Amino acid sequence: MRSYLPGLRSSRTNHGTGRPVETAYDHVTASIESSTGEPARRPKGTHGSTTTGSHATNIILCKRNTAVVEEGVTIKACYVGVRATAIRCTMSLIFNVLRRRQIQLPFQLSDEQRSQYREDGYAVLESVIPDAVLTKLEQSCRKVVTNVDTRDSTAVEDEEPITSRAGYFEPVHPNQDASVAEFSSCPLCAGVVRGTLGPTAYLFLAQYTIKAPGTDLTFEWHQDAAYLPHSSSHTINIWCALDDMTEENGTLYFMPNSQVGVNTEQPGADNGDLAAKLKDEVGTPFLAPAGSIVVFSSSVFHRSGPNTTSRMRRALTLEFSQEPLLDHETQQPLMWAVPVLRSGATV
Ligand SMILES: O=C(O)CCC(=O)C(=O)O
Question: Which 8-state DSSP code applies to residue 215?
């Protein structure tokens, strides 16, 4: 009779005595008894059933390393149960390892993404953030919103608490947020940074950029680099969609191949952003599901529209530089300088 588990011997007669044999195996033991307390017998011609007429067969996982098996009684039912459990455990183990590995595996931009970044100044990576990671970031984002709302509800401005916000632009330092810390140094981010910025990188800002439902909060055409006039360092923005990004909810738009020079002399727009000459241009929208990333050079022109939907539009932006951003006069850091990559390896 064939064995159903490695190391498990099937029932058999003790040669010579004709008595049941003790069958030892590694992980489980089983005794099969009928409901009368008598050892269960498999009717001739049947194979491995757990019930035999009125004799319900109980399978009991009991003492380790010993199974008393009546001559001629199959323990196939037991094998099947144990096998199913073993398969379930193994599958769950493999699944968990793979799920964790998804973000632990080295990540590289594809050739297409590299050339899009080189030519257009930005590259789109659709649905690259694993679901489990996305869930953690959403939770972290929700916590930030709750904290801000709590702060606002107790703050007094002109004697009145702030009751509504058009948007939230809240920095989240990795030292204060484990999900952001984990994500900003994960192989996915490291791969994107390496493929765009190079082998040495510092995180100088991480923030949630959230547009409240039904707000006309917009950002006119601008270059992020225009806000870093003291730096000549190449910088990038890894903009991560926590929600599906659509034209209706205020996604980003890019002006491809506009990453030429940085004009810090642009006049300020109403909302304080630096407006560009591109004022009447629409640009190319970033339309992608939650869990997607658009990585862009800080000198490419981009803008974003209003959120006309009934739901928040949430993103996490991570900004990296090739070297710490220092004030030229004081040599003091202008922003954070969290080392992320050194000689191509994560710090
Ligand atoms: O999130 C947005 O809508 C605008 C963000 C932006 O323009 C930026 O991060 O530079």
Answer: B
The torsion of the CA quartet 123, 169, 130, 124, rounded to 10 degrees, works out to -10
Among candidates 207, 198, 182, which has minimal Cα distance to 130?
182
Where, residue-wise, is CATH 2.60.120.620 in the chain? 105-346
DSSP annotation of 266: P
- Cα(193) to ligand 1 centroid in Å equals 18
The burial class, CB within 10 Å (0-12 / 13-18 / 19+), for 279 is exposed
Q: Which residues contact 114 (CB under 8 A, 6 or more apart)?
A: 123, 195
CB count in 10 Å sphere of residue 281: 14
Q: Which pLDDT score is estimated for 306?
A: 97
> Nearest residue CA, atom 4 of ligand 1?
304
Q: Is the dihedral of CA 262, 264, 266, 269 positive or negative?
A: positive
Nearest CA residue ID for atom 7, ligand 1:
303
Instruction: Please identify which residue in the block is written with the tokens 């922003």.
Output: 335
For tokens 């489990």, the residue is 132
pLDDT tens digit string along 155-168? 665 555 566 789 99
Q: Could you give phi then psi for residue 67, rounded to 5 degrees?
A: -135, 125
Q: How many residues does the chain have?
A: 347
Question: Coil, helix or strand for 119?
Answer: helix
**Does CATH place domain 105-346 in 2.60.120.620?**
yes
DSSP secondary-structure letter at 166?
S
Residues near ligand 1 (Cβ within 6 A): 209, 219, 224, 237, 250, 252, 302, 304, 315, 317
Relative to beta strand 252-254, strand 21-23 is: unpaired
The beta strand positions in 174-257, using DSSP E, are: 201-211, 219-222, 235-241, 252-254
User: 261 — alpha (psi -120 to 50), left (phi > 0) or beta?
Assistant: left
Over residues 292-311, the pLDDT tens digits come to 999 999 989 999 999 999 99
